[in-house]
Design goal:
Largest sheet of chain B: 5 strands, mixed
Strand order of the largest sheet of chain A: 7-6-5-10-9-8
Number of helices of chain A: 13
Distance between the termini of chain B: 22 Å
Helix content of chain B: 25-40%
Oligomer: heterodimer
Radius of gyration of chain A: 37 Å
CATH class of the largest domain in chain A: Alpha Beta
Number of domains of chain A: 3
Strand order of the largest sheet of chain B: 1-2-4-6-7
Number of strands of chain B: 7
Number of domains of chain B: 1
Strand content of chain B: 25-35%
């Protein structure tokens, strides 16, 4: 760079200042590069303008907030003088922070031209002529400058077009036609990688033939000799011309056999987003360096746009998902009964806590004939909208056959058959427990479908597990569920719960477990708490147990207790 | 880089730049060469055409080492380029500079 600037020419003081500024900037870029950034190349660009020199250096660090004027560190400090030096020597320093890379822009005025020399005689083209001093090179550099200008103005046009949302494919096609005109190319093929990075799919092409097939990017895919694939796999430009023609196996060779050009991989933040192949229909008129530069610049810019467009699409998708979840969550909450029916001598209360926005836990209590009561607890396996949907379906089925409430086993058998095809298709299942309580006979009947047994206890007693359990609903079409009949003592407490309760973990990642739940239930029963108090005490116990650790599963329980 | 000792002074000579490439090296050289009798380190900067902040760090580190043992660091005939950097960083007052 010193040599290049010496040819501008610049006096020794300025040369030294530039050497020092660039060294300091480069040292910082290297020293503070991120782990991933160490693999990447930093770009140094020098712009010689009539009245100033501008240098841009990209870095892959996590960036910093540049102070208006860096402070000089204390005399003893061995660090922190680089930025101070740059700011002292330059006329202007800017630090542009980007998502993929940052850029430091340093500007310094050129000394006034010596007396006698006409102003503005030292253009970049002039630099070239002094540097190389060759007519032909001068011509090439002029062309390069012209195409750079074209390229820049096209980029500006497209940047403004980006404010109006339009489909990426259409955008890319327009963009590419512009490119063909600028670099005097005859054809292009643009393929984009699918979001999973498994294959390259055709996005746009100027060739008449059929190229609308995907090229597999998987490592074990058979090589077709495709320049596009080779460029994607090597992550480098792959050239083709008379000395290295398109291979016979290359899909492009059927359409443009005698061509020269290059396949250029497009990256956005280090990830392959596609491959752009551009060619001329002859083997003896290769692209000039400037034109190649334009192709690469266009492709890289396109990569950024594609990545931005995908980001926007993902963002929109996430918003839709959040809205959907909100609806499902409202739906699910509406399923839970606002007020539970009571019956003579016994009270019923329920508790539900959802770990995420939507869960599949469900409870209900249905009064039968003004005296009996059906207690229901269920857990739809899975989360989110499908779980909430099945909870809804389960509830509507439940309320459709209230004639079956006094025979919970038969009720489960019927529910399984009715829901089986839907559950099976969605590969979901439901665990459920139905309990019919008859206050006149002081008995209850339990039937379970893969659900954890309920707990029964009395003050001064110890909890026992009740409820034989068959397959969950949705596993086997022919399952027949049996029921168990038990006496219900006058001071009995029943606790129906989902496994989210026993699976509750504390900060030490210990689970509450069935034993833990039993102990707590007994303590509460010994205090002769009624149903509402039991639920309240259990909820406090659960929250105390889990502390600040967020619940990973829904927690639901239903308590029946003598009043 | 070469070193030689005269009386209580360690002379370090024969280098043309002091930057990332040799700043650590200079510090190592000082660590290895310094003996109890050395009270002064004199660096010959008359041929140094480039000094960057890493070079400065090394100078300050040596300066601190010498201060601790009641000694000092002396810079012999810094070139204009080096003087400019020292001046910009207000270090021309910190180091003893010899310009015969």
């Amino acid at each position: 760079m010193r040599q290049f600037l010496a040819a501008v020419p610049l006096p020794e003081d300025d040369l030294h200042a530039w050497e020092l500024m660039v060294t300091e900037a480069a040292n910082n870029a290297a020293e503070y590069a991120t782990e991933a950034g160490r693999q990447l190349t930093n770009r140094l660009e020098v712009f010689c303008r009539e009245r100033e020199i501008e240098v841009r250096l990209t870095d892959h660090t996590s960036g910093f907030d540049m102070p208006a004027q860096a402070e000089l560190p204390s005399v003893d400090s061995e660090k922190g003088r680089g930025l101070f030096l740059i700011q002292s020597l330059a006329d202007e320093v800017e630090y542009l922070r980007g998502r993929a890379e940052n850029c430091m822009v340093i500007r310094k005025k050129r000394p006034a031209p010596a007396a006698g020399a006409p102003p503005g005689t030292t253009s970049a083209v002039d630099v070239g002529s002094r540097f190389i001093g060759d007519e032909q090179t001068l011509q090439a550099m002029t062309e390069e400058l012209a195409s750079c200008y074209e390229s820049l103005s096209a980029i500006f046009r497209f940047s403004s077009a980006l404010n109006q949302p339009q489909p990426t494919e259409e955008f890319a096609a327009t963009w590419m036609l512009e490119l063909l005109a600028i670099v005097e190319a005859d054809w292009y093929v643009l393929r984009l990688a699918d979001p999973g990075g498994k294959e390259l799919r055709l996005s746009a092409s100027s060739l008449p033939g059929n190229l609308d097939f995907a090229l597999s990017l998987l490592p074990d895919a058979s090589s077709t000799g495709s320049v596009e694939l080779r460029s994607a796999q090597s992550r480098q430009d792959v050239w083709f011309d008379a000395s290295a023609p398109l291979m016979l196996g290359d899909p492009l060779s059927h359409l443009v056999r005698h061509s020269n050009g290059l396949a250029h991989p497009i990256f956005a933040e280090g990830v392959l987003v596609g491959v752009l192949t551009v060619g001329r229909l002859s083997t003896d008129a290769p692209f000039k360096a400037g034109q190649v530069n334009v192709i690469q610049t266009f492709a890289d810019f396109l990569g950024i746009q594609i990545s931005n467009a995908r980001f926007r699409a993902d963002h929109l998708q996430a918003q839709l998902m959040a809205r959907e979840l909100q609806i499902a969550s409202n739906l699910q909450r509406s399923l839970l009964p606002e007020k539970l029916p009571q019956m003579p001598g016994f009270g019923v209360a329920g508790y539900y806590h959802s770990a995420r926005q939507v869960g599949g836990d469900f409870y209900d209590a249905i009064a039968v004939d003004g005296q009996g009561l059906l207690l229901v607890i269920a857990d739809v396996m899975g989360k989110g909208v499908p779980a909430a949907m099945f909870a809804t379906i389960f509830r509507s089925h439940l309320h459709a056959r209230l004639d079956l409430v006094k025979r919970p086993g038969e009720f489960l058998t019927w529910l399984n058959r009715s829901l089986f095809s839907d559950l099976d298709r969605m590969e979901m299942f439901i665990t459920a427990q139905l309990v019919y309580v008859d206050p006149t006979t002081r008995r209850f009947q339990v039937a379970g479908a893969g659900h954890c047994p309920l707990l029964m206890t009395s003050p001064g007693g110890s909890p026992i597990e009740v409820g034989n359990t068959g397959f969950p609903l949705g596993i086997m079409f022919d399952t027949r569920y049996s029921e168990e009949v038990r006496d219900l003592p006058a001071d009995a407490r029943l606790l129906l719960f989902t496994d989210g309760v026993t699976d509750t973990e504390n900060a030490g990642e210990e689970m509450l477990g069935t034993e833990g739940l039993k102990q707590n239930l007994q303590l509460i029963a010994n205090r002769r708490c009624n149903a509402a108090q039991t639920v309240q005490e259990m909820a406090i116990m659960l929250q105390t147990f889990q502390g600040k650790k967020p619940a990973t599963d829904d927690q639901a329980f239903l308590a029946l207790a003598s009043e | 880089m070469k070193t030689r000792t005269e009386d209580n002074t360690l002379f370090i000579t024969d280098f043309t730049e002091l930057n990332t490439t040799n700043a650590m090296w200079l510090q190592d050289l000082v660590r290895q060469s310094l003996v109890q009798a050395h009270k002064i380190i004199e660096l010959d900067l008359s041929k140094v055409r480039f000094l960057d902040s890493n070079g400065i760090s090394a100078l300050i580190s040596i300066h601190k080492t010498m201060c601790k043992r009641g000694g000092k660091i002396r810079l012999f005939r810094p070139t204009p380029a080096v003087s400019q950097v020292l001046h910009l960083l207000s270090l021309n007052e910190v180091f003893e500079i010899i310009n015969p």
